[in-house]
């Protein structure tokens, strides 16, 4: 009979210890699942704070603070991105109203941007190189002052050209 009582007490102790361990592990599991959701992009995720007197509670408070800061930073980044997009639209609108053609040429002779007047005079750049669009050539122009800016001097180049449209232009390369 003492053995039975001992086994019952041992079983109760093991069950009690199991329940106690579950209470300790449960907040850790909740934190782990919340971290997974946060990693997947759920910025609204928050974890319950059962107590701030132990390390798990402090970790929950820190997690919630981190999630809120991350949400704030992403919102700020999106706001900045929208501001930049609108600013770029305004800048392009100004360039399109200029009474001169403006284009952005890359070192590989591609045209990354062309304003309205450029497109009206020479057509949309698409995938064509500057020498194809402006000069009607299949190869780069010899001694191209614009390309000299990339290759040598890094100093502004001022020169004249008469492209395929027959007009003479004063060119300012920067």
Concise structural overview:
The protein is mostly helical and about 170 residues long. About 60% of the residues lie in helices and about 10% in strands. The protein contains 5 helices and 4 strands; from the N terminus they run ααββαααββ.
Keywords:
174 residues, mainly alpha, 58% helix
Number of strands: 4
| Shape estimate | rod-shaped
> Which band does the percent of strand residues land in?
5-15%
Series of H and E elements: HHEEHHHEE
Mean pLDDT: 89
> Structural class given helices, strands, pairing?
mainly alpha
Discrete helix count: 5
> What's the N-to-C terminus distance?
100 Å
| Spatial strand arrangement across the major sheet | 1-2
Rg from Cα: 34 Å
Low-confidence stretches: none
Largest sheet: 2 strands, antiparallel
**Helix share, percent:** 55-70%
Q: In terms of topology, how is this protein built?
A:
Layout: H1 2-39, H2 55-97, E1 103-105, E2 111-114, H3 116-122, H4 130-133, H5 145-153, E3 157-161, E4 169-173
Antiparallel strand pairs: 1-2, 3-4
Q: Can you describe what's shown?
A:
The chain has helices spanning 2-39, 55-97, 116-122, 130-133, 145-153; strands at 103-105, 111-114, 157-161, 169-173. The protein is mainly α. The strands form 2 sheets. It has a two-stranded antiparallel sheet with strand order 1-2. The chain has a two-stranded antiparallel ribbon with strand order 3-4. Helix 1 (2-39) packs parallel to helix 2 (55-97).
